[in-house]
Each structure stands twice: as C-alpha cells, then as structure tokens.
Amino acid sequence: LSSEAVRQGLISFLPNLRAFAIALCGDADRADDLVQDTMLKAWNSLDTFEEGTNLRAWLFTILRHTYFSECRRRRREVPDDDGEYVAQLCVPPSQHGCVDAQDMLRALSRLTDDQREALILVGAEGFAYEEAAKICNCAVGTIKSRVNRARNRLLELLGIEAAQDFGPEPTTEAVLLRAAAKAG
Amino acid sequence: MQRGKAPVQHDEGDMVTVLRPLNMGRQHAMCSTECGQMPHNGEAPAELSGHIVEQLRATYDALLQEPIPDHLRVLLAHLSDAEEKS
User: Fold this and answer.
1) Which residue in chain A has the smallest CA separation from B74?
2) How far apart are the first and last CA of chain B?
3) Which residues, in sequence order, are CB contacts of B3 under 8 Å at separation 6+?
C-alpha cells in the first residue's frame, strides 16, 4: 500500500477507532491518546501489513494491543468504575427509547474487558465473529460466548426485563398518547 | 429451587430453570404458559438481545458522529509529509 492509501484509510477509520477507544476505556481524552498511539504504531509498522487483508481489522488489533498494554502498565483494568469520565462525554442522547447514551456507556464500562470489546466489535462495529476472534486472538466460540454474556449483562445492568422497557419513558409516552388522541 | 424440580409458580414469560442431577448439566425449559419463548443456556429472550444491540449501535453511532480532534488530523498530515520528504 502506498503511504497515501494508508493515510486515506486511517482518515476514513479515525471515527471508528476513536469510538472503539472511547467505548473501551470510557474516557475521551485517553481514547484520543490511544488513537494517536495506534496511528503512530500503524504508520511505523506498515511493512507488517499484508496488502489485500482487512486494514480496519489490522488497525483495531493495534488499538486493542495498545489499550491492554497500557492497562497492564497502569495495573488496573477498569479505570472508570464510577462512570465519572463517561459522564463527561459529549454524546447526544438517544432519540428513541429510554436507554440513553450515558446509561449505555456507563453500563458498558461495567462489563469485563473481554466482554466489552467482543460486544463492541461484533454488535457495534459489525465485525464477523471470525474477524473479531482474530482481532482478540481467541477462538470464535469464545467470542460468541463473550458477546452473549455481554448482552445479558447489559440487560441486567440497565434493568431491562421486558421489551417495553426500551420504549419512551412514561412522561414522553403520556405526551405522545395525548397528542395522538387529539389528532385522532 | 429443589434439584430436579421446576418451580411451580411463576409469571407468564418467566424462564424456568430445571436443575438436573449433578454432571448432567443444566437446562432451561419453557414457561408452562407456553408464551412462545424458548430460552436456553440462561440467555435473555432473542427480542431483548436484539433491542439491546440496537441501543448499543445507536450509542456507538453517536460516538462516530463526534468531531475528530484537530491534533489527530494534524498528526496524520505530519506523518504523510514526513514520509514524502524521506
């Protein structure tokens, strides 16, 4: 790949790398540092990238390694137990349903590292189980199991027991019902 | 819950856990009201799992829409320039 092609690739995947980093560590500033380190490492290791393979998966693998190396260095795995950093993130609230972005990020931060990364890679980034397994350097079955456990744990953390819990919160629902009654 | 016996009283839609004798694993059975859900291995119903992933995607999409900090773009430009000059 030419350096220009890689630069274009990095630019196009920057939002994804940053979103993955934020979802992993729950801290926008730390996520930016992670993305910066990832970009530098990727640029300096271009000769190890096999042309024709998945650049996005390669970049995610580097970011993941960087994140876990840093965690080991810091000797802590969950840096935002109380969701303090997550609360500072500027994410617009979800327009649909009562599970807003802050709640989701806070719940994500309480998953184990391996469950969180598996769920984000497969559920949010859309990687195939096989690709995610490659990125996480584990078996496909392990990824499937982690995704499944992560989904169940998220439901538990968000207190969701029925599909109705995803609907509009009671006040919004009452307003909508009233508007619908007036219109009807 | 007693080993080998399913609880008799439960609400509609509840997942009922049937514990088998040791070394025979654990199995989840249908609710006796036959609400149509077939949970297994302790999984949440598929409908809820689907919804939670939708919510996760919505949150993730919001993160994707966040502006990229200038210093990251500047770094990329620098890397590219340095490559060209070398």
Assistant:
1) A36
2) 72
3) B19, B20, B21
Q: Which of A96, A127, A154, A165 to mutate: most B Cβ within 10 Å?
A: A154
pLDDT of chain A, 184 residues: tens digit per residue: 676 777 788 889 999 999 999 999 988 999 999 999 999 999 888 888 888 889 999 999 999 999 999 888 876 545 555 555 555 554 444 444 446 788 899 999 999 999 999 999 999 999 999 999 999 999 999 999 999 999 999 999 988 776 666 665 556 566 666 766 776 6
- This prediction has a pTM of 0.68
* CA atoms of B55 and B18, how far apart (whole Å): 32
Give the pairing of strands B26-29 and B16-19.
antiparallel
Angle formed at CA A174 by CA A173 and CA A180, multiple of 5 degrees: 90
Contact A105, A89 (CB under 8 A): yes
